[in-house]
Amino acid sequence: MPGSFTDEGIVLRRVNYGEADRILTVLTRGHGKVGVIARGVRKAGSRMAAQTDLFERSRMQLAEGRGELLVLAQAQRASGPPAGLATDARRSACAAVVAELTDRVLEGHHPDGAVFVLVAESLDELGDPERDPRRALVWFARQMIDRLGYAPELRQCVSCSRRLAEAPAAFSPAGGGLLCPDCRRDDPTAIDCPVRVIKVLRVAAAGDATTWSRLRLDHDALATLEAIIEKELEHHLDRRLRSWEVLRALER
User: Fold this and answer.
1) CATH code of the domain in which 63 resides
2) Residues 98, 68: one domain?
3) Long-range contacts of range 41-50, CB-CB < 8 Å, 24 or more positions apart?
4) Which of 82, 165, 169, 245 is deepest in the core (most CB within 10 A)?
5) Domain range holding 101?
6) pLDDT tens-place string over residues 115-158
7) How confident is the model over 209-245, as pLDDT tens digits?
């Protein structure tokens, strides 16, 4: 088939189109984020319907179309969505945050194998019923924020530049890092962080996935870390992610 290629892809977004088609946003391993039209997949008995589900990972044959959208010619499941994503609304909402953030951060047709692996591994962990989904969400969002160029300052106060003591501090999303106790008074939106959380933030900032996987993160620590990245994303993207609003509604 002229103008076609085969690549592994993860469905980040889907929209029904016409009577039987779907338009997909797909993150591919070798071609980056692409727009795809899947013709006839909503018809009864379609063999490719399952491969167009959200978070589905498939080996796709994609062909050039008449417009900007690629055409899904064939698809073979490489790894279906983890079972937990289909049966647990909260895990599914966390996966939606991963998908929406990936869609917002990445430009089209710019392949990044490391991001593809990060997304795939994060979705796998989110679907694991033995693990707290906030852990995977915090790690993923932290890595993506850093890729945007907003790595936080965690060693010295972002306001006065004094080196921080091994003591509680506060994280300022607007300032881009930690504030010492004196400067914390000037930012009422800063999020108070115990020493334990500060150490965890430093592990995440170092990108050390092995150490991260060994950390024991209790409910309160995860709640603080989640609050930090939520406010960071809202500040840097200048809007709240819709999927995060859904997640918050579920938690309430």
Assistant:
1) 2.40.50.140
2) no
3) 41/72, 42/16, 48/72, 48/74, 48/75, 50/77, 50/80
4) 169
5) 83-152+168-251
6) 999 999 999 999 998 889 999 999 999 999 998 899 999 999 99
7) 999 999 999 999 999 999 999 999 999 998 889 999 9
